[in-house]
Each structure stands twice: as C-alpha cells, then as structure tokens.
Amino acid sequence: MSEQSIKVQLPDGSVREVPRGTTPYEIATSISPRLAAAVVVARIRPLTTVTTAAATGDEESSEAAMYGGSEAGERLVDLTAPLNEDIALELLKENDEASLKVVRHSAAHVMATAILELFPETKLGHGPATDSGFFYDVYRETPFTEADLAAIEAKMAEVVARDEKFVREHEPREKGLEEYRQHGDFMKVHFIEKFTKPGEEISLYKNGNFTDFCRGPHVPSTGRVKAFKVTSVAGAYWLGDEKNQQLQRVYGTAFFNGKDMEAHFKRLEEIKARDHRVLGKQLDLFSIQEVAGAGLIFWHPKGGLIRKTMEDWMRDECIRRGYDMVFTPHIMRRELWKISGHEGFYSQNMYPPMELDDAEYRLKPMNCPGHILIYKNSPKSYRDLPQRYAELGNVYRYERSGTMHGLLRVRGFTQDDAHIFCTPEQIESEIAACVEFADEVLKAFGFVEFKVELSTWDPKDTKSYVGSADHWEMAVGSLKKVLDAKQIPYREIPGEAAFYGPKIDIKLVDVLGRLWQLSTVQFDFNLPQRFELEYTGEDGEKHRPVMVHRALFGSVERFFGVLIEHYAGAFPMWLAPVQVGIVPISEKHLEYAQKVKQQLEAAGLRVEVDARNEKMNAKIREFTMQKVPFVLVMGDKEAAADAVSVRTRGKGDEGSVPLAAFIERAKGLVASRGTAL
Description:
Elements: E1 5-9, E2 15-19, H1 24-31, H2 33-38, E3 41-46, H3 58-61, H4 63-68, E4 75-77, E5 87-92, H5 97-118, E6 123-124, E7 134-139, H6 146-162, E8 167-172, H7 173-182, H8 186-195, E9 201-207, E10 210-213, E11 227-237, E12 246-255, H9 258-273, H10 276-282, E13 286-287, E14 298-299, H11 301-320, E15 324-325, E16 331-333, H12 334-340, H13 342-345, E17 354-355, E18 360-363, H14 368-376, E19 387-396, E20 412-422, H15 427-444, E21 449-456, H16 469-485, E22 491-494, E23 503-509, E24 515-524, H17 527-530, E25 535-536, E26 542-543, E27 546-551, H18 556-567, E28 580-584, H19 590-602, E29 607-609, H20 616-625, E30 630-634, H21 636-641, E31 643-648, E32 652-658, H22 659-672
Parallel strand pairs: 1-5, 15-19, 21-22, 28-29, 28-30
Antiparallel strand pairs: 1-2, 3-4, 3-5, 6-7, 7-12, 8-9, 9-10, 11-12, 13-14, 16-18, 17-18, 19-20, 20-27, 21-23, 23-24, 24-27, 25-26, 30-31, 31-32
C-alpha cells in the first residue's frame, strides 16, 4: 500500500484501500448512493490503537467533550471529515442513538443562529445535547418572553429551510480569542482559554453567517434538523456562581421525524403524571417545609410506613448476608475529616464547621470514617476478616439552592451504607457478593433491567485523586474481573471515579425507560492507609486491609422517589401503606366491617375502614384515588356469608368471595413481594 493510501475496515470485516483524505461520505457513496443519503455521522476507530468506548450520555454533553476532547481513539466525526489513518468505520443512520445526540447538538447551533438573527446583542455560552434534547446558555439583559420563544422557533424553521451546510474550519487560537474579545463574547473566551493551549488551532463550525467555537460533529446541513421545538427558558448563573452574570438557558428538543417527537411529548406527559412531588402530596407521603429549609424531608405516616418496610427488608437482608448493623454519630470532629481526606477533596459539599467548646465539628456527609473507627477500636486477625458493617445512616451534604428536586436531590438523606474490610485475597469475592446483592435489591423492588458503568481515574489529573498508579491499576483490575466473570456488560468512564478509588455504578431502568443512578460499589485502598488500619496475618505480621464501600438503595429518599414514579404511586401489595380499604355500605354494616378489619390485621395486613356517613361510591372513589390495592365492600349478603366483595386496583369489581379465601390471597401477595395483584 502506498503512503498516499489508507485502509478502511467496514463493519462486515471487509477492508478497502482508499486515498488518504477520503471522507466517510465518499466511502458511503461508493457503497451506495442510497446509503450516502441516509447516513448522518461516522464513527471511526484507529486500527493501530486500543479501542475505547465512544462517549455517550452526560459525557457527550460536558463542556470538555464539546471543546477539549481528544481527537484520537474511537470517536464520532463529520461525514466530510478527511480520513488520514487506517481506521475501522461505521456509517450511522438516523436510528442510531449517537445520531440523535448529533442532530440535537446541531439543533442547538440552529437555535443559536436564530437567536442572534433576532436578538444580535445576545452573547453565547455553550449549547450541548442532553438525554432529552438540548439547550443553549446565553447572556441577554432582557429576559426572553413566551412570545420570544415562539419567534425563535419560527426563525429556526427558516434556518432549517435554508439547508445551510455545517462546515468545520480551523484558525489560530490567538485570532479566535481576539475576535471573541472584540465582540464581548466573554463565555467563548473562557472556553477557548480553558480547553485549548497557546499556539494551537481552534475548531469552528459555520452555517450560513453563523460561526461557533465547537469541535462537533454535526449533521451535514441544517436541513437535517427536521423536527424540533423550543420548550422553555430558565435562569442559570455563569459558572454556577451566584456572584456572576445571570444567564438564560433556552431549552429545546429535536428528532429526525415528527412521529418520534410526538411520542416524546406523550412520554413527557406520562412522566408529569408520575411526578413523585405531586403524588407525594396527593398520597400524603412526605413534604418539604419551607420554614425548616429546602432539601429536608418530612416523612408523613404513610410514607414513613413504606420507609420502615424498605429499611426492615434491607436490614434483614444485610444480617442474612453476614453484615453487622452499626450506628455512628451525625457530627464528628473536623480533624477526623482531615484524616479521611474529605476536608481537602469534598469540603465544597460539606456544611461549614461548628465551633464547640472542645473543637470544631462537621456534619457527616459520609458514614465511612465512623465505620473505620469501629474497625480500629479493637485488634483484628485475618481470621476476623472480612468485617462487614452496615448502617442506614443520616448524612448531610450541601446542595446549592437551585439544585434541589423533591426526594431526588436533597440536603439530608439516609444512606444504606456498608463498608467491608478484608484481605486483598478476599476483595474480588466481596465485590462479587455486593454486585449480587445489588441485583437482588433491584429485583425485590420490581426493577428488571439495569445498566452498569465502571468509573476509573484520569491519570493525567493526579491532583484530583489519591494513591499510586499501581494502586489504581490493581483496584480497577479487581472490579473488571468481577464484571467479566459475571458476564455483565459495562461501559468504562475514565475520570469519573471517587477520589479514593474506582467504582461500579448500577443504574436501574424504570417503567418509562429512564436511567436512575442508585446502587454503587466502590474500591478504596486510600482510607485504610490514611487511618493506618491493620490486621494480623497468618504469618504473624501486620498487614493493611482493603476496603469496599457499597450503597444499594443509594439513599432511601432517592430510591423512594424513584419507586413512586416507577409505580405512579400504585405500590406493590407488600409496600402499600394501606393494603386493604374496607367500605361498609351503611352504618348497620359497620360492625361486620370492624370484624373483617380485625381478621385482616391478625393476618398481618394493613387495613383502613371508611366509617364516614358517605355514599358507598364516594368511599370507593377515595380509596381508589389513594391507589389502595384492594377495596372490600360489604353489605347484608357479605355479612351473612362471611364474605367480601372485592374491587382490585386496575381490574375493578371481581365479585364476592369468602373472607378466608381473600385473606390467603392477600397474604400470598405480601409474602411473594410480587408486583401484580
């Protein structure tokens, strides 16, 4: 092969030799003009390097991915990008998930084009794609109105109709900085200075008269942004600092066709109907009291009963699996957090110190230092290991006022934390047991699908982590071995590890297909060293244990919020705060209703009788609105036959059955923890 040629390997394994500089679009055209018309973007992987996972999800929307990502390894490129090395090539069509992210990022550029054409005084920040659409941060002194958003959407339609090509260009960094400074584009100046180095060239994308600092990729032209909508605008401080300028974040979404966009908005309506904040109030489960402060949860009796059921299940499972239940204080001396490293690496998420008579104290954001002190309180032998400590402990983390969101983002929460102290030889089996436990938790609460991510460190950013490269290599290798041995597919995410070690994140998939980050298993070689933990080995010498952090609910509050939305408040029988509602037809049937209640409660069921002087249908409607699994109606016929008339949630009237038969059915549903009635 000549130096002017490169090899291109296609997905079917075939290899083509093409001139250096050939574009993906040209290769698509040589295969089929029909294919060339259908492809959106290309994914390439150099044949001479190790494969790395293509960025997806939050990684794609990060500023680093937009401006400073590496142009090496596996990556997405424009169809017009010249290919200059031997590569494996995939031509992605509209049905590929990565293509959707690309069209949404392109739609953000279309929106920015429209905004500047309508409001030329606006200064641009950045406009990433998100899981549900895109946004663009802009600075404009005058707030956008609903009429402005409608005008922006109409202008976007004009930009799309013009079918302007997205063209990538490069220019010297200093020239770009000077141009943006002259126009007062302070945010673009910041991004260039942050993500590029002196002497480099910067990447720009142009469509028509619009130019943006961006590394792409994009769809071939604005005409490929076929279905879009500007949805809302919200405030956002520049760099997240309340002291900086207040930006306007304009949100939108985009799809390749109107049918998909229509389905998206129907799904949003379903999500709205399942909002745990609305259902929490409707079902009287919890509240957030303004007088007490944002992000602090008050559990009402019904919510508290569900919480108790969840926690009892978790404690019983921990004990069954060899954990010891422990309890640690809510505040501890500041010195402890200095030893653990939280004071240096995590202080921005901690509440300020409290100065007491003997020392400064801080509210705990984590349970781990407390568990370490329990381990360290007495000598340990290799025969004592592993030591597994579990705690449903309250922790407190400082979240900025604009970031709280019901139960999902709070300032005080209960973490189902556990820490395992073991020998290096035991670490893989302990991690495997944690992963198995996490799987059991998800299944027990009705989740059947999950996705796994392995978060590792960034060796180029050693200041953000503790430990040597050898430690990190050993820790990451242990987690990988477990996942590989269990044949669990996972995505590796460099740079997302905790400061003390890598972690496995298990994200459940709810009934609407949404991902929720809850369970995590983390390797820690740092804290045992910081606290000088020891055990006596079989050789009689002192050795250092290794440590595993694991949380499976993640936080009880967040897990409960996800449960509410997953079930739309219609909890499975074993979790429902009221499992059976009893409706006597009239006052003369109240005595029989109370007798039925006593028998149901004796069988361990949670029961409520509506003894109000209301019509039967009104009582049934009230229990139905409260999403009670079973409503039992009783009159003369039922009282005479020792029976109940059963109405089942989601199924309606099932007729009269013997009371004993209903009790057995209800007990079986509770015992099985099934999700169906």
